[in-house]
Give the backbone structure.
Amino acid sequence: MKGILKGMAAVVFGGMGCFITIVFVVVLAVVFAAAAVGNALPQPLQSMYFAWLLTGVPNQSDAVLPVGSSHIPFTGYDGPTGFVCAVPAQGATLTDCFGTPRVWGYHHGLDYGVPEGTPVTAPMSGIVTYAAFSPIGYGNLVVIENHGYQVLLAHNESVAVHVGQVVVAGQVIAYSGNTGNSTGPHLHFEVRRASEKGSEAMDPATVFLPGQTEACNWYHLVPANEYETKGCERFH
């Protein structure tokens, strides 16, 4: 009887060992295959691909995020206000609109084509809450917050401010580039508002930022033909 039991145990545990080994090898093969696929993709798509693998979400913040769930949470800062109605980088042209359809939903900001290394200025006064490379596609990102609003300036070549620094409207905060999920040199300009339901992306042309006293149409700050060519009036 003991011999029979020993034989059965050997078969069972031996089979389990083989099964575990097979599962381990398969998982390892999948991981290496996934990495190989990602490394074979063009650079602009790599960050999107790996972000999807790691988080299961598209490579861009959702239109609405629970407060504090992203790497750029609101801090509640309320400071001196100031506003400049000017494209944050001189010589820029409009290359994409707020609301343009995307795989993950829609574009959450405006894109301005601008040469790499162009000074990027703060459109509003506030405190810097993020100034580093973003792992979710924004590249080198600067976030400025004040009175429940954030402005995000993304894809920079380098940043010129640090977290906790109070900046004034018009101050140089970065230098434009082509980092992160980017298909060419440009500045991504995004506005977010804090609310009870979360962080909501807003069309910059429909928002009054802290210190702003008159409407500022961010689309018409560029040559009219660029605006008409992109057809941004359909999305705001």
